[in-house]
Design goal:
The structure is a single chain. 35% of the residues lie in helices and 15% in strands. With 314 residues, the chain is of the alpha/beta class. The chain has 2 domains: 2-102 and 286-305, Rossmann fold, CATH 3.40.50; 104-278, NAD(P)-binding Rossmann-like Domain (Rossmann fold, 3-Layer(aba) Sandwich). The strands form 2 sheets. The chain has a 7-stranded parallel beta sheet with strand order 8-7-6-9-10-11-12, sandwiched between helices. Strand 9 (198-201), helix 9 (215-220) and strand 10 (226-229) form a beta-alpha-beta unit. Helix 1 runs parallel beside helix 11 and helix 5 (104-119) packs across helix 7.
Amino acid sequence: MKLVIIEPLGVEDEKLLSMAKHALPESLEIQYYDTRVTDTETLIERGRDADIIAVSNLPLNADVINGCKNLKMLAVAFTGIDHIAMDACRERGITVCNCSGYSNAAVADLVFGMIVALYRNMIACDQAVRNGGTKDGLVGFELEGKKFGVIGTGAIGLRVAAIAQAFGCEVYAYSRTKKDIPGITYVDLDTLLSTCDIVSLHTPLNDSTRGLMGKAQFERMKPNAILINTSRGPVVDSQALADALNNGKIAGAGIDVFEGEPPIAKDHPLLNAKNTVITPHVAFATKEALVKRAVIVFDNIVKWLNGTPQNVMK
């Protein structure tokens, strides 16, 4: 059996390989690539004789999947799998396991970093001080007492909801599956959007969530409301969001994800939208989270080798 770690996983090389050595059976051959490439031919060459491939958010299309003739298991060091050609994996009976849970704390931290940055005008305050200014025009808002909407109440959404409660917010939720959580009021999407001062997105990307937030949804939001998206870029219509921000339909946005991975085109509508905090798909990326992720990757591989696979994606 051969494992190919086809791209860096965000942990220092020596530490990652040490973790692999201690977690995985000695009989498993390990090939590690410390560079990230995207062309199909090179990816096929890297994975040609692999039984198992570990990958982060590097897109693996059907040609790559089918070009790796021995592939039996994909250990995806990520929560989402929309960058993987799942149809090709299903056709070949390849087991795909993700790393759900590794970034719960990291993503939630960034959500509130963005909210505080927007509510307290932190970017403008920084510039004011550097340019000899004062707080004039920069008086902000408190989180306490605000109506906080969470769209998608999986593990990350629920962590965000719990932190919002700690800040003294009144929490509302919209999700495919309702859960009996003290302090969370489940409502329909229209009610959440028209009620909440803060709306935070935590849905996966699928046919039902693609374009979930568009022009009609932004028009239902309060003019003083802010939107936070740390889920997936295509859940939001970027042009509609930029229009809503520039036309004063909503007050601000924190955006970590886009239609594709950064770098983002210079003419992307959100780069010139008012009152935004924009980050380069970094919500999951903390030192602690990346180590947690590697632990789950290797545990997924061990469980699969033992015939008891976990975190299996369909």
